Input
Amino acid sequence: MAMYIPLSRRRRNAALIAVATLVAGLVVGFVVGRSSATTASEAARDVRARGDELASHVAALTIEYDQAIGADQTAGGTDTIQGGVLDALDLVDSDLDQLIKDAPWIGSAQSDALHAATAAVRAAATNKVTADEFETVADTTATAIRTTFGVDT
Output
């Protein structure tokens, strides 16, 4: 024989199940959301790491510059300042723009200073300064990038 359950009890049980399911879904959603969200400290750490990498790329331009000016002096050299340094500097400028966009704490004065520093590297390469002078400009720019983005050196 079937047991009779009053309608009011069935409604109450259905409402309790619905509320319990809702609460469980909210708890699971909150936990998953919190664990997968990027925190401010993680974002800052990422920007610092990318800033350090960008500064390393600028410092490495000295190798390309040495090879390019050496190729000018010896017959048959294939490295050029345009291909080895200026094209790479275009990528550095592009990455720098993205990095500044990802770092909201960088003000316009700091942004302008960074762009001026990379422009100094470009000017040094274009003017075909000595390798030591280029290294000084590139190292100064790399230091400015690291300092601005808070990279510990």
In short: The mean pLDDT is 87.
